Amino acid sequence: MASTHLRGITWNHSRGYVSVVATAQRFCELRPQVDISWDKRSLQEFADAPIQGLAERYDLLVIDHPWAGYAAHSGVLMPLNERLPSEFLADQAANSVGQSHPSYIFAGSQCALAIDAATPVASYRPDLLARYGLQLPQSWEDLLELARAGRVIMPGIPIDTLMNFYMLCATQGEPPFAHDEWAASDAMCLHALGQLRELASLCPREIFDMNPIAVYEALSRRDDYVYCPFAYGYSNYSRAGYSENILVFTDMVAIGGAGRCQSTLGGTGLAISAACQHPQVALEYAMFSASPRIQRSIFFDNGGQPGHRSAWLDDEVNRRSSNYFRNTLPALDRAYLRPRFPGYLHFQDHAGAPIRDYLMQGGDERKPLDDLKKLFAEAKALYRD
pLDDT of 34-76, one tens digit each? Predict the structure, then answer.
């Protein structure tokens, strides 16, 4: 009978849930005295729900890296850099996918291990491109032309519109934040908002209620849409048997002379509550889950999207995922890293709505920009000493 029980909380998609249940199952088979159970929450709750209460109830937390600043400020998560072997952390850093590993480090404290890596990438139905005699877009102008033909779909809920706003500013040389301060010029912000509105106006209204999962479900099941220009990638849809039709994932279009889109880094990290009563067992499980061998095998085999670079380069992993990982790795390596200062989540939670409203209704393009600046000032003031 297990004498040590750990509880974890993750998010309710095969990629986020089945993968950690599988690693926990194998870990506990190797250590019969340990039992690990996982609960799940919605993708929206994953993005929005504060980690303070979760860290009081759970030992293990799958989190988003913008929580790193809050974690360092509040102390609710275990600083892994103080507890894990330096050799292990060095391997994680050397095999980071883009900035996935350092994204969980803030003020010298590492709050999580990057067990999952993602950024918005492009996806398409090769069978439908051939059926309709269409070409895969390579430029922003190509994308608009395909959208005018009614064949483009993308996520349009507030959080995704905000991430795409970041993407367009960063791609064109003015990331919205630098050193945790507002950095993009008004001219660039207005230009990016105009680009997003033009594209969104050529897409169906239903996108404004769609997150990436809903987009991939529609793209893989229906025959009207053939291409998604940018949505957080899910390698599940590139694997045989997961959905009705396989999606092929690839890099995104180029914008003028700025090069291919620099989308906004996502992914998830495995954190340990500072209140965990069995910290050594939790640390051993975290290292097990993030190890290259497990990332390439059990984690990937059970729907996970690994965070260790060796898995992204693995021949068998790519064979079984229509080359998802090799195809999209360049986008991960150049992805834009969001701010992580303690109050940033206040901004992220509210800043997508005015952008989405503008994309849906038009009007004065300065209003969403003014709203963003106001929200940023509020976020910076939240934890000011």
Answer: 999 999 987 777 666 678 889 999 999 999 999 999 999 999 9
95 within 8 A of 291, measured Cβ to Cβ: no
Q: Amino acid letter at 176?
A: P
Q: Of 34, 283, 235, 214, which is closest to residue 116 (Cα–Cα)?
A: 235
- Please give the C-alpha separations between residue 333 and each of 2, 67, 97, 325, in angstroms, as whole numbers: 42, 21, 6, 12
What is the Cα–Cα distance from 1 to 57, expressed in whole angstroms? 23
* Distances in whole angstroms, Cα of residue 207 to Cα of each of 38, 161, 213, 228, 263: 31, 10, 12, 11, 19
DSSP 114-160: EEE---EEEEE-HHHHHHHT-----BHHHHHHHHHTT-B----SHHH
Helix, strand, or coil (residue 242)? coil
Let me know: does 60 contact 9? Beta carbons within 8 Å: yes
Contact between residue 192 and residue 255 where contact means Cβ atoms under 8 Å apart: no
Give the chain's largest Cα–Cα span.
65
Residue 362: count of CB within 10 angstroms of its CB: 10
DSSP 268-325: EEEEEBTT-S-HHHHHHHHHHHHSHHHIIIIIHHTT--B-BHHHHT-HHHHHTTTTHH
**Is 272:140 a contact under the CB 8 Å cutoff?**
no
Structure tokens that stand for 184 in this block: 């993009």
Cα 283 from Cα 274, distance rounded (Å): 12
Predicted confidence at residue 290, as pLDDT, reads: 98
What is the rounded (10 degree) CA torsion for 219, 223, 227, 231? -10
Question: What are the tokens at 39?
Answer: 């609960």
User: pLDDT tens across 75-95, in order?
Assistant: 999 999 999 999 999 999 999
pLDDT tens for 149-177 read: 999 999 999 999 999 999 999 999 999 99
Coil, helix or strand at residue 247: coil
- Give the residue from 212, 205, 208 showing the smallest Cα distance to 228: 212
- For 236-253, what is each residue's pLDDT tens digit? 999 999 999 999 999 999
- Give the model's confidence band at 226: pLDDT under 50 very low, under 70 low, under 90 confident, else very high: very high
